[in-house]
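Whether sequence alone determines local backbone shape is best considered at the level of individual chains. For completeness, the protein is quoted in full, as a sequence line and a line of structure tokens:
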Amino acid sequence: REGKYKNRTYYSLTWKIQFNHADDTCYFAHCYPYTYSKLQQYLQQIINDVNKKEFCKMRILCRTIAGNHVYLLTVTSPSANCLAKPKRTVVVTARVHPGEVNSSWVMKGFIDYITGSTDDALLLREMFIFKIVPMINPDGVIVGNYRCSLIGRDLNRNYNSNLATAYPPVYNIRKLVQTLLKEREVILYCDLHGHSRKQNSFMYGCENRLNRELWLKERIFPSMMSKNAKDLFSFASCKFKVQKYKEGTARVTMWRLGITNSFTFETSFCGSTLGGKSGNQFTSRDFESLGVALCDTILDYCDPDHSKVKSIYCDLVHDIKEKLIQKFKDKDKDTELNEKNLRKYLSEVESDTQGSNSSLSDGSIVNLVVSDGKKIKKLRSRKERSQRRHQHRHTNVRPHTADPIQRQNTEIAENRKLVAVEFKPSNCHNGKLKRFIFRRDIGKNSKRSTADGIPIYVQERLDERAAKR
């Protein structure tokens, strides 16, 4: 490799395997497979269950570009009292990146738990409405993409896009959440993912550093999660920075809509470094247990007794103070750590999220343009654009001057052509201003600025003042 990657070391994995059966078919997988067909069979079993029909409904949220169904599951107990206070909502999504199969196993554990017959499951259905999209990107899953959709775009960088026909799943999920927010409170948005470079499971959230009332509130839920899954979830790996190139992700988009607890829930392809699971690879059962821990954390977070929330909040403030004191001590700084300074220096104790930067190479779709948010028209082909550019170049050609200094002076002289324009002064000027001012004739299609980038009207005033002096 060249450039900044020249001195990096890269690793390759090789292994040997002996096939015991002749004419057999074997598959090598990055993680335990979970296909679109398997999801359809699983959802059909839930819908066909007589006991689960009462509180579990399934509908098609939208169709993908290839025409596959994106399913929306609604789980809640029927409300007996129509005058009761509207239930709060929890939105959980998964598999926006097709290759992150572990997110489907976490989703399976989550759905199994909330549709179960335990007392906690009954309480969850009584308290909340669960809106679940178990597979956002079925096109990518079917064709075998790792990260992109059928058109080669990362859907998790386009939640803020209005291209409904280009990104139908994420566009409709955003519209769903916007509709829910008008009707009721959404206490949690959780987007399930898989991580290939870090161990354990963890969350990415959005810090509320500038909001005094919500300061550190986004950290309470992940901290509770770490206590409910001690051997699997690492709060130390959670990050809460909002970077510019992540603006199109689900967690940032939903946070911008007003959901404080908006998270990306990452689960490692590797294993755990915590407790009794340290050094062990994650199994499908471990992934499902994380879905169960997510349900337990929702109950703890919404417990009418707020003692747990208050205790964790105090612990968070204390831990951040300790980290900042140590950091300033290493830098020989003497800073008073009141609440204002804590909010100011909070980002100093956090590093980058170290996630994928696929959005840096993902520009807008060049062959699509939005018109009124509905219609999409094709731009000219590359061949047509080249021909048009070639014709424009020949029709607007200037006489060639060999001397570059003379050519530059000619261009400057052309830009300084002045045209008299009538100006009618207002009453407040007492008629003292001239009836004519001069401006540069720069044409209709040119920018209203000088070669130095100074606006024309500013340059005119500067010239007038210089002439008076």
